[in-house]
Specification:
The complex is a heterodimer.
Chain A lengths: L21 E9 L2 H4 L9 E9 H4 L10 E7 L5
Antiparallel strand pairs in A: 1-2, 2-3
Chain B lengths: L17 H13 L11 H9 L3 H6 L2 H16 L4 H16 L1
Helix pairs in contact in B: 1-4, 2-4
Classes of the chains: A mainly beta, B mainly alpha.
Chain lengths: 80, 98
């Protein structure tokens, strides 16, 4: 994941920026929420992926089951 | 802020940092005061400062609020996109590390 914090309306959670995950599947293509939030078209549509992160990768010092995972839907332009 | 009770106002002289003068100049240019293209108004500056919320408002300095508000306004108006801003921030961060 890209690790950057620009202003605006962004659907990529802060806590997974800069973390590594595995793409589970492609969910389809949707209007870009960063543009839709500013009352613009959001076109062209952007591919959206379901990405799986291990909790141990997301939260330093995570003490639960090491296989615990978190799935987040991420637009392509936030993947690195 | 917003009519809430606050402490005493302590008048003190201070000089602005270099980046603060640049933010001030940026605002002057964007409002078209010097005959340039008018890309925002002082009302938008105020609106987006008020949209920061009380926590961020208290945490940020005067010109930090300005630069945050100017950025939001430029995104809202489509002068820059969040995507372009993020890419530029990554580029500058990389330059700083080299």
């Amino acid at each position: 994941m890209r690790k950057v914090y620009p202003l605006g309306h962004i659907r990529t959670p802060f806590y997974i920026r800069g973390r590594s995950g595995v793409v589970e599947r492609l969910c389809g293509a949707f209007g870009n929420p960063e543009e839709l939030a500013q009352m613009r078209s959001g076109e062209p549509k952007q591919p959206l992926y379901r990405v799986r992160f291990l909790q141990t990768e997301v939260w330093p010092g995570y003490r639960g089951n090491p296989e615990d995972a978190l799935e987040v839907e991420i637009f392509q332009h936030w993947l690195e | 802020m917003g009519g809430l009770p606050a402490g005493r106002v302590e008048p003190a002289e201070h000089d602005n940092a270099e980046w603060e003068w640049r933010v001030d100049a940026l605002m002057t240019l964007l409002t078209g005061v010097k005959g340039g293209k008018k890309l925002m108004t002082v009302d938008e500056l105020r609106k987006n400062i008020e949209a920061l919320g009380p926590d961020a408002y208290d945490r940020m300095s005067y010109y930090e609020r300005w630069v945050s508000s100017i950025t939001q306004t430029m995104i809202q108006r489509g002068v820059v996109t969040t995507e372009e801003l993020g890419r530029k921030m990554e580029q500058i961060e990389k330059r700083g590390r080299e």
